[in-house]
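Input/output pair, single chain:
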Amino acid sequence: MTHDPKQAEMVRRAINAESADELEALYNDWADSYDAYLDGLSYVAPAIGAQLLADHLEGQRTPILDVGCGTGLVGIQLAERGFSKMDGIDLSQGMLNIARESGLYETLCQGDINQPFTSVLEQYGAVISIGILGIHVGTSALDEMLRLTRSGGIVVISVRNPYYEPSGYQAHVHSLVSAGEIKLLVESEKPYILDEGATAMYLVMERQ
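Output:
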C-alpha cells in the first residue's frame, strides 16, 4: 500500500466507489499521477497481458480494442511488441486525454463498460482488458468484448485473484466454454503488482 496520503486516498476511493459517476470522477482526478503511482509499485499486468496477446495473435496490423484502456499502459506494451492498429474505450475522459497524448490509438471513446459498447461499431481481431475486471465491472463486459470480437479472434483479460471466483468470472468463462462460444487457451495465475505480491488470473480465449 502506498504511503503517499494523496495516492492512499485515491486507492480508498477506488475500492469504495459505488457508482460509475464516482469512478469517473475518481479517475479524472487521478489521471495526471496514475502512471507514476503504478510505476512505483511495479505494476506488471500490462506487460504480461500484452505478451499473452502477442503469443496468440498473428498479424501486427490486426485491429485491437483495449477495453478500460486508461492512460494507455497496455497500448504502450502492445506497441513495443509491434502492434500498430489500436482503439480504446474508458470511463474517464481524463484518462483518455493522457492516452491520446501517446499517439498510439487510432480512436478513443468514452463509455461505461458495464453497459453495451454502443460507441464501438466494428468487430476486432483481438480485444484486451487488463486491470479493471472483477470489482466494479461485471461479467456482462466480457460478453460485450466477445460480441465485438470476430470469429477466430483473441480475447485477453485479467481479473485480480481475490475476485476471480467471487465476482462470477470463473463460472461465467467456463459456461462460455461449455456453450461452445469460446475456446479457453490460457487460464493462469501470474504476477499483477510486484511490490504488493499481488497476482491475477490471466485468460486467453479464442472466439468461436
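The first helix runs from residue 5 to 16. The mean pLDDT is 91.
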